[in-house]
UniProtKB/TrEMBL annotation:
EC number: 1.1.1.104, 1.1.1.30
Pfam families, per database record: adh_short_C2
Record's keyword terms, sorted: Cytoplasm, Lipid metabolism, NAD, Oxidoreductase
Pathway(s) where this gene product acts: Siderophore biosynthesis; Amino-acid metabolism
GO cellular component assignments: cytoplasm
GO biological process: lipid metabolic process; siderophore biosynthetic process
Name of the molecule in the record: Dehydrogenase/reductase SDR family member 6
Lineage: Eukaryota, Metazoa, Chordata, Craniata, Vertebrata
SUPFAM superfamilies the UniProt entry points to: NAD(P)-binding Rossmann-fold domains
One Gene Ontology MF term: 4-oxoproline reductase activity
Compartment list: Cytoplasm
């Protein structure tokens, strides 16, 4: 038996990186997973894997999120992964950069939780996991102004939902990874004027001497999605 047998899980950004790794890890533990993303081609790579269904959804669009939620009578776990990393200080952040980042990194979570939380409350049971970052209220990092601001908001959102709904059977947690080796990171490194130096700069910040893998984050998400964590969370939130 798997640790997530019988659980119904919906997640965003499932086409690659943390979302993809989590979808696969959840399914291997017995969950029925619906992985969403806007990248239809990459999302197709999950089609046919046991326990995983895919659906193209833009989680920044209220109508698409609400339509997705209507397809489910029950959802046990909601994993919000969708995010964007903007490079620069406040002086490099135009209004459209601010709006774009906030729309993906925090408003998408608001929309998803608003749509799925009532289904969890009806069952008096549910589990929400949000992907934040150490670059947030935990730590400031140069040239991550709006990204760090948005991820600090994710931590605040998570704590607020935990405080409001824990006694109604809802667990809400966030994961705050360091630098994760994902296709997105590699694309951002290659986009720099000197990719080799950019990679060295990323590595210099890693206390372990290596990058975190998407699979390592996924394993933590499996733990948080499981019933093993319930007592810990009662202690951890308060």
């Amino acid at each position: 038996m798997g640790r997530l047998d019988g659980k119904v899980i919906v997640l965003s950004a499932g086409a690659q990186g943390i979302g993809r790794a989590a979808a696969i890890a959840f399914a291997k533990e017995g969950a029925q997973v619906t992985a969403t993303d806007i990248n239809a081609e990459k999302l197709k790579e999950l089609d046919g894997l046991p326990g995983i269904k895919t659906k193209v959804v833009d989680v920044t669009k209220k109508d698409q999120v609400e339509a997705l939620a209507k397809e489910f009578d029950r959802v046990d776990v909601l994993l919000n992964v969708a995010g964007f990393v903007h490079h620069g200080s406040i002086l490099d952040c135009k209004e459209e950069d601010w709006d774009f980042t906030m729309n993906i990194n925090i408003r998408s979570m608001y929309l998803m939780i608003r749509a799925f939380l009532p289904k969890m409350l009806a069952k008096k049971s549910g589990n929400i996991i949000n992907i934040a970052s150490v670059v947030s209220s935990i730590k400031g990092v140069a040239n991550r102004f709006v990204y760090g601001t948005s991820k600090a908001a994710v931590i605040g959102l998570t704590k607020s939902i935990a405080a409001d709904f824990l006694q109604q059977g809802i667990r809400c947690n966030c994961v705050c990874p360091g630098t994760v080796d994902t296709p997105s990171l590699r694309e951002r490194i290659q986009a720099q004027p000197d990719p080799g130096q950019a990679l060295k700069d990323f590595m210099a910040r890693q206390k372990t001497g290596r990058l975190c893998t998407a699979e390592e984050v996924a394993y933590l998400c499996v733990y948080l999605a499981s019933d093993e964590v319930s007592v810990f969370i009662l202690k951890g939130v308060w």
